[in-house]
Structure formats: structure tokens, C-alpha cells
Amino acid sequence: MNPPETQNRPLFEEKQSPRGLFTADCVDFMKSMPRGCVDLTITSPPYDSLRDYKGYQFNFHEIANGLYRITAEGGIVVWIVGDRINGGRSLTSFRQGLYFQKIGFSMHDTMIYQKKNTPFMRSNAYTNAFEFMFVLSKGSPKTFNPLKEKTVRHGFEMVVYNKGSDAVNRKNLKELKKEKTKTNIWSYAVGMGGTTSDRIAFQHPAVFPEKLAEDHILSWTNEGELVFDPMCGSGTSCKMALLNRREYIGVDISEDYIQLAKQRLRSCVRVA
Ligand SMILES: C[S@@+](CC[C@H](N)C(=O)[O-])C[C@H]1O[C@@H](n2cnc3c(N)ncnc32)[C@H](O)[C@@H]1O
Q1: Are residues 173 and 189 part of one domain?
Q2: How much is the pTM?
Q3: For the chain, first and last CA: distance in Å?
Q4: What is the mean pLDDT of the segment spanning 26-39?
Q5: Is residue 131 in contact with ligand 1, taking CB distance under 6 Å?
Q6: How is 178-199 classified by DSSP, letter by letter?
Q7: Phi, psi of 31 (to 5 degrees)
Q8: Is 233 in the pocket of ligand 1 (CB under 6 A)?
Q9: What is the domain range of residue 41?
Q10: Is 252 close to ligand 1, i.e. is its CB under 6 Å away?
Q11: Closest to 26 (Cα-Cα) out of 55, 80, 76, 64
């Protein structure tokens, strides 16, 4: 089915700020973007037709190729994806990860987005409570601002430093830091108040948490850099880019979702 109201606008005209929300098929839209212009893409595709996004088509291979072309050297794509569970897992996510590698991306990390609530129950397997966040890089990542978390213990302590073949524990006085770099498993509450406090966002069926988008934006970009979401839905990544002083481009094939995203961004500017 073709989108009823697709509009392709020239984007990178001279002096035009590369920022905005656009109704388009992202494959077509990316063709209008210069090679290597995006510092960070953060997106969650419609996976395994788990939800019906008005029947729009999703061509993974063309999207992946387009993303490789527009990503800057050292830029990052965060691809947030789960698998259909119908008996067993579809493993679509793995196939997509391998394809990204095949076309030149490096699988920099396979991070986990853990949902603190709304776990998906199964009668014959453990409750599913996560999605993958594939962190793909074009070459070596040019930016990494590691997020920190508080440590349980800090201050000076006698710490075991060597358990040699004699099995004797030796101890040293060592300062334990107040904070450490976070692990690659990130947990978020989902639903109203967790995902977002924007009531209107839930007119979209698959919003991801604002904090998740923000954490990636802070990790992989600096102020003024360009964040792209080719399937932006309710506009979560664009909203968080805006609030963190990054440029943003959001694209969705549905005019309704783009209108929703625009409304959401307008109200966040008024509040901020
Ligand atoms: C999982 S949702 C994204 C939700 C978003 N992360 C949020 O927080 O609201 C996937 C989106 O992809 C859009 N989509 C599907 N095929 C598309 C295409 N070819 N081009 C652009 N958008 C597409 C759907 O309309 C849907 O809004």
C-alpha cells in the first residue's frame, strides 16, 4: 500500500538549517540527504509486523543501505529491535545485525533495553522483558561521552588485588570511586510517566522512552550535531535532540504521526 500523503521536500538547500519533521518514505527521503551528514541515527523500526502501522511497507535492506550512505565517518546508528515470538523467536534482529555488518557497519555493541514493567508473558518460557539496541558504527566511533552511575561503596578500602597460585589473598588500600561507567544493559519504566509524560504521545502504539533516546544522544553526540530518526513515529528522538541542543531530522511515512510529533515538539518548546 502506498502512503496517501507523501511529500518529498528538498532539504539541504543552502543556508537552510537541517532540522525538521517530514512525511515521507525514509528510503526516498535519505536519497535527498548528502553522504555522511548524520552523526547519530536512533530509531526503532516496525519489526516482524508486530503492529500494523496502517499497512505501510518497510524495506529493511534499502533502509540499511541508505543509513550507511548518510552516516558520517565515526557516526553511530542505534537500531532498537525485538523479535516476534510465535512458538520460538523469529531472529529477524540477528539477520538485520548481520546485514548491517555485511554492508560495512561495525557492530560496536549489542546493548539491552530492559523494560521494568509490562513484561511479555509466555507460558513455556521465561517472561520477555527486553529489546536489543544494536549500536552500529561507521569506522571507529568519533564521540563517546560515557554515562556514569553511582557505585554502591566508595572511599578507601582494603581490596583484594592478587590471588596467585599460592591461593593467598593479598590486599591493598585502594580508593573506590563514587561513580562508574554504566553497563550496556539499560532499564526503563514504560507506559505513562515512564516512557513519557506527554499524554498525546500514546496516540502512537509503540513509543520508546524519552530517557532511552536522551541517554544515546548524550553518549554518541555533542551539542549542535545532527540526530536522525527515519521512522520517528511520535517524535521521541527528535524531542530529546531538541531539548539537548542537537539538530534533528525526523521522518515518518504517516502524516498522522508527523502531525502528532510536531504537536509534541511544539509543546515541549513552550514548556522548556
Ligand atoms: C516502532 S515505530 C517508531 C516509534 C518511535 N520510536 C516513537 O518513540 O514514537 C515505527 C514507525 O515507522 C514508521 N514507518 C514504517 N515504514 C516506514 C517507512 N518506509 N518510512 C518512514 N517511516 C516508516 C511507522 O509509521 C511507525 O511510526
Answers
A1: no
A2: 0.88
A3: 39
A4: 95
A5: no
A6: SEEE--SEEEE--SBTTTBS-G
A7: -65, -25
A8: yes
A9: 20-146+183-271
A10: yes
A11: 64
